[in-house]
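Continuing the series of single-chain predictions for the mutant panel. This is the parent chain; the variants come on the following pages.
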Amino acid sequence: MTTRKKLTAAASALAIAVVISTSYSVFAGSGAPRTAGKSVPASTYRALDLFGDVFERVRADYVDPVEDRKLLEYALNGMLSNLDPHSSYMSEEEAKAMSVQNRGEFGGLGIEVTMENGVVKVVSPIDETPAARAGVQSGDLIVEIDGQQVMGLSLNEAVDKMRGRVGTNIILTIVRAGTPEPLRLTLTRDIIQIKSVRSRIESGNVGYIRMSAFNGQTYPGLQKAFQDIEKEAGNKLIGYVLDLRNNPGGLLDQAIAVSDAFLDKGEIVSTRGRKAEDTRRDNATPGDLARGLPVVVIINGGSASASEIVAGALQDHKRGIIMGTQSFGKGSVQTLIDVPGGGSIKLTTARYYTPSGNSIQGTGITPDIMVERAKIVEEKSTFGEVHEADLKGSLKNQATTPEKVNDPTLQPENKKPEDGAAKPDDKKPAGKDGKAAETEKSDDYQLIRAIDVLQGIALYRATGAAKP
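Parent structure:
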């Protein structure tokens, strides 16, 4: 057998091994390989012969020598990345990096990305990372990395360029909808330690739980958040806000566990693969960690995958009110499959469905109450607000003393409280991260609306309970 024929046969054997070896585990590892139960058509062998011919021509005639392994990796990446945006080949180093990321600590910029029209699209920045601090937003398109065009690079190649030694700078050129000129942002690489769950008390009686990712720390973090909130608020607690904005997803088992925390029974999610036997249904178990209190879930365009599983389960079971904007729309499941040589392939193997049987692939979760991101601006009036008591000759309320009517804390916006009077900023409870919780809330219109809904529900229940 000639050298060329040997190379062709070797390449064909490798390609066949990759094509027909699969395992089924949901974004968690590898299982026992299985073979497709059909014979391979002759046309497939002819196509593999073509691959071998092209492989040998590139190996022999390309302007610069390229390692055989690199050429095969390029071929694998091309095959997988053309299936859908989430399938890819990972070298041994990349597979280890993903394993570290799923455990909740890794190095980089702190952004979840995908590929769209040849450029890198930001799914969401991760809280308290270089990307979030630099102002990277969900939906941003990264068109240059350190001055090099992203067009023409694979997603893995672009990600590799964004990684680097901790403390080094990188310049991202970003195209953002509504911004006329591209933005050039300088970020400093750092160790990304994801504390996926944070919590605090809002308005004295609302438990706020921020979930930024679904990694191995998420469900234990949620359990601790419930304990901390109940310890601090006690019987005053009227409900929970679960903030899943800009949460790009992660581990399916963690999404199921988080959903189960709020549900007593019923289906959480079903995953359906190519074959009937690949269908899997996950159901809730008895026990509601929120003790039946109302829940408002906030989502946006950066809420993807596992976030959408949680939002969809709570929405379909009428367990939570979904508020915010349309979610990302990633309704597929990826399986990590180990391959010879230490690498892995991330392959889309199933679609997932909400309890009502809806697939959100490409559409996303539609909120029950649409609330766009907005900035609250005080409306200033030259003359201040006019009330009945301000009218000349108006009747006086005999039960109200003049001192209370003229309380300086109730004056119109253009009047200042007298010296020594309490000001709105004087009493702002600090959150666990050291910031004033009320200050954070006042800048977050979607969160304000979520708290308003919970307080409205509590008021309605209290009023109803008071009726004979």
